[in-house]
Automatic annotation (TrEMBL):
<protein>
    <submittedName>
        <fullName>Epoxide hydrolase a</fullName>
    </submittedName>
</protein>
<dbReference type="Pfam" id="PF00561">
    <property type="entry name" value="Abhydrolase_1"/>
</dbReference>
<dbReference type="InterPro" id="IPR029058">
    <property type="entry name" value="AB_hydrolase_fold"/>
</dbReference>
<comment type="similarity">
    <text>Belongs to the AB hydrolase superfamily. Epoxide hydrolase family.</text>
</comment>
<dbReference type="GO" id="GO:0016787">
    <property type="term" value="F:hydrolase activity"/>
</dbReference>
<feature type="domain" description="AB hydrolase-1">
    <location>
        <begin position="38"/>
        <end position="134"/>
    </location>
</feature>
<dbReference type="InterPro" id="IPR000639">
    <property type="entry name" value="Epox_hydrolase-like"/>
</dbReference>
<dbReference type="InterPro" id="IPR000073">
    <property type="entry name" value="AB_hydrolase_1"/>
</dbReference>
<keyword id="KW-0378">Hydrolase</keyword>
Length: 293
């Protein structure tokens, strides 16, 4: 895989995924796009990039949709403000609302994973008028309420690491051989490594640093319902699904209380990175859901 500059649009060779920079909410944002038709907005998590949705983008574009996947604020080729208080859900959703305006879209389908799922939930709470339907992965909103996330946020705040740089995969020789999972190729690792070598992890860490502030700013939405249609997909091996109280909340009626138009799918034999581990299955789930609307 390689990239070439052409009229300020970068095309992934052989894939037809186009890349461009747009101005949203006071920052420059990198977005990847493919296809024509109703827009499906893909939101990545940590420590991922737009690239985590590459399989779904190709599949949805082939089925008559316009797939759009940004590098969220702080990631990849998108701007990364230095202060952690620029990384609350209010700021991130603000970026996305502005992105929809740039795309000329009143409403879109939203798909989120990991931190992208948290942002997707908040997008539906803040601006349900801009969302046709939501398909998030994992119970990330529940995870964000646990002590684990708060402890991690405090560690990152007090120790305040500077930009963390990882070596490029081709130049890194580990002490022990590294066996990649079947769903992750050396080509994939090289792409991630190249991007994080340039920017580091500080932007992604800032989402955790802003957790307490995030809760303070979103207090007005406590107990609010997500009233857009939602298809929630989780792997049965995912740690967030197997965390304390998660299954009881998801299957015991608590989840449905806050998300009345909810469909739950538990996929067997799959872990956290569900959209890459079972890429074809997730693409089919997304298409089967959104084609109803």
């Amino acid at each position: 895989m390689y990239f070439r500059e052409r009229e300020r649009v970068v095309v992934m060779e052989g894939k037809g995924i186009e890349h461009r920079m747009v101005t949203v909410n006071g920052i420059k944002m990198h977005i990847a796009e493919k296809g024509k038709g109703p827009v499906v907005l893909f939101l990545h998590g940590f420590p991922q990039l737009w690239y985590t949705w590459r399989h779904q983008m190709l599949s949805l574009a082939a089925n008559g949709y316009r797939a759009v996947a940004p590098d969220l604020r702080g990631y990849g080729d998108t701007d990364a403000p230095s202060s952690f208080d620029s990384y609350t859900s209010l700021s991130i959703v603000g970026d996305l609302v502005a992105l929809l305006d740039v795309l000329g879209q009143d409403q879109v389908f939203v798909v989120g994973h990991d931190w992208g799922a948290i942002i997707a939930w908040h997008f539906c709470l803040f601006r349900p008028d801009r969302v046709k339907a939501l398909e998030p992965g994992e119970m990330e909103a529940e995870f964000a309420r646990t002590g684990t996330a708060t402890v991690l946020k405090k560690f990152l705040t007090y120790h305040n690491p500077g930009p963390v740089i990882i070596p490029r995969a081709k130049g890194f020789v580990p002490d022990e051989p590294i066996t990649l999972p079947s769903w992750l190729s050396e080509e994939d690792v090289n792409y991630y490594a190249t991007k994080y070598e340039q920017k580091g992890f500080t932007g992604g860490f800032n989402y955790y640093r802003a957790l307490d502030l995030n809760w303070e700013l979103t207090a007005s939405w406590t107990g609010a319902q997500v009233k857009v249609p939602v298809k929630f997909i989780v792997g049965d091996q995912d740690l967030t699904y197997n965390g304390p109280g998660a299954k009881e909340f998801i299957h015991g009626g608590g989840f449905k209380k806050y998300v009345p138009f909810l469909e739950v799918v538990v996929m067997e034999g799959v872990g956290h990175f569900i959209n890459e581990e079972r890429a074809d299955d997730i693409s089919r789930h997304i298409y089967d859901f959104i084609k109803k609307f």
